[in-house]
Amino acid sequence: CQFKNIKNKLLARSLLSFSGWTLFGSISKVGMIQGSTILLNIFFGPIANVAFAICLQINVAFNALCNSMVLALRPAMIKAYAEKEFEYLNQLFSVSNKFILYILLALALPMIFEMKDILLIWLGDKVTEQIVLFAQLIIIYVICLAMSNPITIIMQATGHIKEYFLPVESVSLMCLPISWLLFHIGLPSYSIFISMIGVCVISHIIRIYCLRKFYSPFSTRDYLVQLCLPATFIFIIGATVTFVIHTDISNNILRLLINVTFTPLSVALMAYYMGITRKEKTLLKKLLRSSVIGRLWKR
Fold it and tell me: What's the CA gap between 81 and 76, in Å, rounded?
């Protein structure tokens, strides 16, 4: 092997721009979380900070799950864009969105309704209503944020990083002044999650706009009809079933066991039969077989 120093200013500039704007996106997320911690400490003291710190552990666990789900799809999506196989890329995009959303819904619904009992098992008797509410709201925020992963992958493949990260993350950082204003006028501590969720929804709308602008094969109508409408229907049914179980069974342990087993199963069945098409089922099976899970299953 021989080392040869090659100077290519255009390539270096392109690489630095890509890494720099990606870094800006990461810094904005870290800044939002750490800034929220500082605001809670200023306005509400260490008790609210402890509750927020516990919620961040749930946030980390859900993010790890989301990243593991995207891991199998990311190389295939970038490869499909590079080879201009846009029809296949659209299928991967649809599958990845549905895969992430339905799995998170299956896990989130029982956790939201049974959060108090879950935290009692995890933390013991030192569970306050503030911690329960914080944990429920952080799960909603994580689901909203997780839906950005497939969009980010395609936008990174297009190379329009600045046009994507600059408006999206600038809006995300607005969470801090909005939260400060809400606290300043006397609203309670959980208002910070309302700010985070609201800003996340606005950022997602901007993400969809950027995807539509820089990736012409994307259809906003298909996104709404094929993903949002079935997901809303499945969410309503799943939430109704979970709520009925939560209110009709008085025994806490029995209710928790039924909800954490029956609700994910019902959401998964509804997603399989009503949420994804036949082509998407075939593609999902193919991707799962080629992933780490598939290789472990064969062993």
Answer: 9
Is residue 67 within 8 A of residue 278, CB to CB? The reply is: no
- Helix/strand number for the chain, H first, E second: 15, 0
56's tokens? 């961040």
Q: How far apart are CA 129 and CA 277, in angstroms?
A: 41
pLDDT digits (tens, 9 = 90+) for 50-81: 889 888 888 888 888 888 878 878 888 999 99
Which whole number is the average pLDDT over 214-231? 91
CB contact burial 40-50 (16+ within 10 A = b; e otherwise): beebbeeebbb
Lookup: tokens for 226:
């094929």
Express each pLDDT in 147-163 by its tens digit: 988 998 998 888 888 88
Question: Which of 109-113, 123-127, 213-217 has the weakest average pLDDT?
Answer: 123-127
Question: Burial letters for 124-155: b for 16+ Cβ neighbours within 10 Å, e otherwise?
Answer: eeebeebbbbbbbbbbebbbbbbbbbbbbbbb
Residue 24 burial by Cβ neighbours in a 10 Å radius (0-12, 13-18, 19+): middle
- Mean pLDDT over the full length of the chain: 86
| Distant-in-sequence, close-in-space partners of 290: CB < 8 Å, separation ≥ 6 | 72
Q: What is the pTM of this model?
A: 0.86
Cβ pair 190, 179 in contact under 8 A:
no
* Residue 203, helix vs strand vs coil: helix
Res 166: pLDDT: 85
| Cα–Cα nearest to 128, from 191, 63, 189, 42 | 189
Q: Which residues contact 168 (CB under 8 A, 6 or more apart)?
A: 25, 203, 206, 207, 210
Task: Take residue 185 and report the two structure tokens written for it.
Answer: 């006028």
- Cα distance between residue 210 and residue 228, in whole Å: 18
